[in-house]
């Protein structure tokens, strides 16, 4: 039971201490926002997969250490439950996995239906209040509203939405910065990453890793989109656009990614006073180390499964 115990400890450590590890990794000499998005996504996926694998490992341990026992469990569940009086353990593991899967499925269906309903309603609203327009070489929905705002909606019926009020307060370069920011959200599919972590946090709100990811990932996607806009247009237009639209989307739906989201003041400070750069090898080394630590629970869980199935025990050596 050494390997399963090590796997449990690794999974608990990632779930509880993982957020601190990832937050420290993003500080001085840390990777950029796109890499941090990948690390947060990796951490949440590893934790979820490790928990599912752990349930299978404990079931295999209770059913017996040999390949014969595992095969017998697959061929005849009833016989496996009767052997070694392990039925209660298998039943508990199966019940936990089933409950978690149903919880995740139910939350995903509920959030998916709510999102689809909102997008249909939003599209009807755009058809009545907005018109398609080519703005700086990009097709957008131009809303005839005095409110200043810009955001993007994923999907075939979505796209970049900008209001007449925003065009009135923004200069040409600032509009290009806003469009580049929203285009980055769509092209890099940030809504999928944000939706994934919010789904996990909604389904399992007591897991510290999921709670932290739901807080950090929306900020990171804004940073990544900001960096894309800066590369295309420059720092000054983006900073001024953030200032002009800072109050625009306080009542915006969580279904959209808006130019004014995720603490605009911090985003401006990040662009105006960036952290001192580090040597590339140091950043890559730190990123590789964090990725290895994040992946460790799944690797240990897989090793535990292989050890339970492949390594012979003394009572099997005679066969």
UniProtKB/TrEMBL annotation:
Cross-referenced Gene3D superfamilies: Metalloproteases ('zincins'), catalytic domain (3.30.2010.10)
Positions of transmembrane segments: 35-55, 87-106, 289-313
Gene Ontology molecular function, alphabetical: metal ion binding; metalloendopeptidase activity
Cofactor note: Binds 1 zinc ion per subunit.
Claim: Zinc is one of the keywords in the record: yes
Signal sequence bounds: none
Cofactor list: Zn(2+)
Cell membrane found in the keyword field: no
Domain Peptidase M48: start-end pairs: 129-193
Keywords assigned: Hydrolase, Membrane, Metal-binding, Metalloprotease, Protease, Transmembrane, Transmembrane helix, Zinc
Record GO biological process: proteolysis
Top-level taxon: Bacteria
PANTHER family tied to this protein: POSSIBLE SENSOR-TRANSDUCER PROTEIN BLAR, SLR0241 PROTEIN
Family: Belongs to the peptidase M48 family.
The protein's name in its UniProt record: Peptidase M48 Ste24p
Taxonomic source organism: Nocardiopsis dassonvillei (strain ATCC 23218 / DSM 43111 / CIP 107115 / JCM 7437 / KCTC 9190 / NBRC 14626 / NCTC 10488 / NRRL B-5397 / IMRU 509) (Actinomadura dassonvillei)
